[in-house]
Each structure stands twice: as structure tokens, then as C-alpha cells.
Specification:
Keywords: Heme, Iron, Metal-binding, Monooxygenase, Oxidoreductase. By secondary structure, the protein is an alpha+beta fold. The chain has helices spanning 13-22, 43-51, 59-62, 64-67, 78-82, 91-102, 107-112, 114-131, 140-145, 148-157, 164-175, 181-204, 210-217, 220-250, 253-261, 266-276, 347-364; strands spanning 4-5, 26-30, 36-40, 55-56, 138-139, 282-288, 292-294, 297-299, 304-308, 369-370, 392-394. The chain is 50% helix and 10% strand. It is globular.
């Protein structure tokens, strides 16, 4: 079967996922830059794969092409797979890094973040109300969905207010796998420079924040990479979750009515959004530690593997009418937060943000409506993330 070339710009990610699923549970794909990998779409294979110790995320140990020098810093996704953080670590190294970062995402720490989440939500609501005076059109993504997560994660990290806009701008560029190599490189250098300065500052003047924690326990490179990971992963995914949930609710008035009446919970809305409109489609990359087999397909030692996180929620063998948004359905299975050793440590915080923000938005503006419910709301750039790029609306 001919190799399917993934669209680096991510113009229609769920349609691409459907094409991948038609090709079978494990299929050959070409990533940006022409690098080939095995794409895994089937839930029954993804779950065990994500916990298999014979599948690693450490390219520096287990990607033959990188070790042989065939993959160079010019490859568009080079920084995705070579950064020294828990995102790409394996085994004992991963456990050590994760243990440090996870201290900021305990149940107690998440509860302690509730006032911050509420404050960020309140500020976003006030900004919406001000922008929407007199029936003016507002962008719900830009003014609401995109502001809350960055404020929350920056509070958790300990980022000063005057650096937050620049960090968000850099993170937006880094998540865009279709951006030029020059733009990606410039954003990475700028962000690492800001985070390196913060790590050094927190060592001298530590506080009760995540950067202070990693600065005290990890060397510079790992501390900076971990802060980088938390910033990008900790807000980009939640922005897309919020934007997609808002769009789905405003285009499904029957579901919104059921939520308002108490028939459907906000938690169910969040999970159904994660299933039907996953905020992440692909996460590069994983590597075979030894020769192995996935779904009857032999995978050679050192071969790259890409987990298609956007696929399980659209599996018609698991979900009846998988494209239908129905929070009342019995099975809302998804892998939006991953599984196994690399399961997202920020899941409880992301859920808290989403439920708090959605409830507050629809309580504050009961007559909220999209300007063009059936219009084109665009797609966030890049093949990693998924969500509408704009949500023009009036508050009513």
C-alpha cells in the first residue's frame, strides 16, 4: 500500500484520521520532511502500546535513523523528539523527571488552583462583556478560550505577567508543525531564553511554583525543557478543548438545553468533546526498542511509531455514530490524555479549567450565539493540534 503523506498544515485532521483508519489499524505514513513512520489508529492496539516497555519515546536512545545521523536539526520536528524533558524520556530517567513535575499536579495542588481558575475565568468573562457591548461581534476563542489556560498555566509555572503574551506567542508557533523552520527556530530560541532566565531566577529566589520546583531538582537543560513542555502542553490543548466544546454546544442547542436542565453534566460535555473533537491528533514520536509486532504488522527495532490520538474516539466499532456529539451516550471512550507512563499529569487541572469556564460562560451569557453557526471557523495550524481557529459570536 502506498505511504500516506500527512498534511503538515493540518487543514482537515479528522478527515485524515478517517483515511488512516480505512487503511487498517497500522499503516505507513510520511511525516513532515519526508520521514516515514508507522501510524497506529486502533484503540485495541493503542492502549497496550502506550504501556509497553518495548516502545520508547527517547529518540536519543532508540531511533536508529537519529543515531545514524540521517535525522538532523534541520528536520521540522527535530525539537519535538530530541528535547531533554519527561516528554521524550524513557525508563528510570522518565520516572525521575515525572516525579518532580507531578508534585505540582497532585489532587491537593489542583484544588489549590481553583481560585486561580475562577479568577482567570472571571477576567475573561469581563473582557467578553466589554468587547461585546452594543451587540458587537466577539471572537470566543481569542477573548475567552485562549486566555484562561495560559493565565492558569503561567500562574502554576510562576511566569511574570509581563512575559505571558510573548510566551503564548512562542507556544502557538511551536505547536504549528506547518510553520517554517526559521519561525520554529526563532520561537524555540526566544522561549528557551525566557525560561532559562526564569529557572536561574527561581534558583536564587524560589517560590511556590513549578519552575521553582524543577529548578531546585533538575539540571538546567532538563528544568528548562520541562517548563517548556508544561507551558505548551498545559495551555494549547485546553484552549482547543474549550473552543471545540463551545462550538459544539452552540451548534447543538438540544444538548445545551439538556446541560442547562441538569440532564447532562459538564463533565460529560468535556469527555464527549475530547472524544468527538480531540484537541490533539498526533504526538510524535515513539520507537521500537526491540523487533515487535503490532496488529500483525512487523515493526523493526528502531522504527518510529506515531500514535494517532485522534482516532479512538472516532472508531465506529466502539462508538455508534462516532461523529455525532452526544454527551448522554453510554461510552465516551477516548485517549485524549494518553495512557501509561506518559499519561498527562495535567488532566485534573485541564478538566477543572474546562468545566469551570464552560459553566460560567453559558451562565453569564444565556443568549450567546455564533454569528454563522454553519460557517467555516477554520482549523488551528499544524498536524498536532485540532480545534477551530475563530469563533465569531454575539453575546445577546
Amino acid at each position: 500500500m502506498e505511504t500516506l503523506v500527512l498534511d503538515a498544515t493540518g487543514r482537515a485532521p479528522l478527515e485524515e484520521v478517517a483515511r488512516l483508519r480505512e487503511r487498517g489499524p497500522v499503516t505507513r505514513v510520511a511525516l513532515p520532511g519526508g520521514v516515514e513512520a508507522w501510524a497506529v489508529t486502533d484503540l485495541a492496539l493503542l492502549r497496550p502500546m502506550l504501556v509497553d516497555p518495548n516502545i520508547s519515546k527517547d529518540a536519543r536512545q532508540h531511533w536508529v535513523a537519529l543515531l545514524d545521523g540521517d535525522i538532523t536539526p534541520q528536520w521540522p520536528l527535530y525539537t519535538w523528539v530530541t528535547g531533554r524533558s519527561m516528554f521524550n524520556a524513557y525508563g528510570t530517567e522518565h520516572r525521575a523527571m515525572r516525579k518532580v513535575a507531578a508534585r505540582s499536579f497532585t489532587a491537593r495542588r489542583t484544588r489549590a488552583m481553583e481560585p486561580c481558575v475562577t479568577a482567570a475565568t472571571t477576567a475573561a468573562l469581563e473582557a467578553l462583556a466589554d468587547a461585546g457591548k452594543g451587540g458587537a461581534e466577539v471572537d470566543l476563542r481569542e477573548i475567552f478560550a485562549a486566555t484562561i489556560p495560559v493565565e492558569v498555566i503561567c500562574d502554576l509555572l510562576g511566569v511574570p505577567d509581563d512575559q505571558r503574551a510573548d510566551m503564548r506567542r512562542c507556544a502557538d508557533t511551536l505547536i504549528d508543525t506547518g510553520a517554517s523552520r526559521e519561525a520554529q527556530g526563532a520561537a524555540q530560541l526566544e522561549l528557551r531564553s525566557m525560561l532559562t532566565a526564569l529557572v536561574h531566577d527561581k534558583r536564587e529566589r524560589p517560590g511556590e511554583d513549578l519552575i521553582s520546583t524543577v529548578a531546585a531538582e533538575l539540571p538546567d537543560d532538563e528544568a528548562v525543557s520541562t517548563a517548556n513542555l508544561m507551558l505548551v502542553a498545559g495551555h494549547e490543548t485546553t484552549v482547543n478543548l474549550l473552543a471545540s466544546a463551545i462550538k459544539l454546544l452552540l451548534t447543538h442547542p438540544d444538548v445545551l438545553a439538556a446541560v442547562r436542565s441538569g440532564e447532562v453534566t459538564w463533565s460529560a460535555v468535556v469527555d464527549e468533546t475530547l472524544r468527538v473533537a480531540p484537541p490533539v491528533i498526533y504526538i510524535p514520536l515513539r520507537f521500537a526498542v526491540e523487533d515487535l509486532e503490532l496488529g500483525g504488522v512487523p515493526i523493526a527495532k528502531g522504527d518510529p511509531i506515531i500514535a494517532v490520538f485522534g482516532a479512538p474516539g472516532r472508531d465506529d466499532a466502539v462508538h455508534g455514530e462516532p461523529a455525532v456529539f452526544d454527551p448522554a451516550r453510554a461510552d465516551r471512550t477516548h485517549l485524549a490524555f494518553g495512557a501509561g507512563a506518559h499519561h498527562c499529569v495535567g488532566e485534573p487541572l485541564a478538566r477543572l479549567e474546562a468545566e469551570t469556564a464552560l459553566r460560567a460562560l453559558f451562565e453569564r451569557f444565556p443568549d450567546l450565539r455564533l454569528v454563522e453557526p454553519d460557517g467555516d471557523h477554520g482549523q488551528v495550524p499544524g498536524f498536532v493540534a485540532n480545534g477551530p481557529v475563530r469563533l465569531p459570536a454575539v453575546l445577546g
